[in-house]
Design goal:
By secondary structure, the protein is of the alpha+beta class. The chain contains four helices and twelve strands, in the order αββααββββββαββββ. Strands 3, 5, 6, 8, 9, 10 and 12 form a seven-stranded antiparallel beta sheet that branches. Strands 7-4-11 form a three-stranded mixed beta sheet, with no helix packed on it. Strands 1-2 form a two-stranded antiparallel ribbon. The longest helix has 23 residues. It is rod-shaped.
Length: about 250
């Protein structure tokens, strides 16, 4: 096929497509470049920011992509995308709860000890600091050791129980922010600490504000031992206790 035949076929194709015939431009290297036209026969320069045959500019129907009315519409943003629902493992809530326990339990006990929970029982006068309740089998003459107690911001009862028999030996009463020292008989004891706000006697103790702990290590009092415990909480404290979730038993 010659050049003339090829040009003829192109012109025929353009006529079928209802487009105006275009002109052929020759550059200095003898390479042919065809000038583009729209369907109305109007030449469109190369590189023009205009849609060939588009709407919105008067050459077609409907708004063009670059019309003012269309620029504010984000077609990518408004595409339908299925929502992804994050699935959590059932064990995650228990892990979170276990991690929060070291914070929640002390906070709960502090609120309870400070009297934040309602207590409608009539309050009784708390014994004076240094008052003791002693087992009838204890001979005061054998109390050659001493225990000192420094209370924090709660009333406190410090109890000593025989380590082997778990029999109550002595209870020491200390008002909040006070300190005392009292004689105790020598021996190895399990120490228990009762704290609270309003005093309700040896049966109900401090009512709803009662907190109860047991000192982990046994307390040894020799013939002339003098031990002091400070109940102010401190990161450097060495009086390790375990929490008793039941209230103390009444003293007979």
């Amino acid at each position: 096929m010659g050049i003339d035949d090829r040009d003829y076929m192109r012109e025929r194709y353009r006529d079928r497509q209802r487009k105006a015939s275009g002109t052929t431009i020759w550059n200095d290297r003898k390479a042919r470049v065809e000038q583009p036209h729209d369907k109305h026969g109007k030449a469109v320069p190369l590189g023009s920011a205009r849609w060939i045959g588009g709407g919105g500019n008067g050459s077609g129907v409907g708004p063009g992509w670059f019309d003012t009315a269309s620029r504010a519409f984000d077609y990518q943003k408004n595409r339908h995308r299925p929502k992804r629902h994050a699935q959590t493992h059932p064990a995650q809530k228990w892990i979170f709860l276990l991690c929060a326990m070291p914070i929640l339990i002390p906070a709960y006990r502090e609120a309870k000890r400070s009297g934040w929970f309602p207590d409608r029982v009539a309050e009784l006068p708390f014994p004076a600091s240094g008052t003791v309740t002693v087992n009838n089998s204890v001979d005061p003459k054998t109390a050659t050791s001493k225990i000192g107690v420094t209370a924090a911001d709660a009333n406190v009862v410090v109890q000593l129980f025989d380590r082997k028999t778990d029999v109550h030996v002595i209870s020491v009463y200390v008002n909040r922010n006070e300190d005392v020292s009292v004689p105790v008989p020598p021996g190895t004891y399990r120490m228990k600490i009762i704290k609270g706000d309003k005093w309700h006697g040896l049966t109900k103790w401090f009512g709803t504000s009662t907190t109860y702990e047991t000192v982990v290590r046994p307390m040894l009092f020799t013939q002339r031992t003098s031990r002091t415990i400070d109940l102010h909480r401190s990161p450097a404290g060495n009086l390790h206790t375990s929490i008793n979730f039941t209230n103390p038993k009444p003293l007979n």
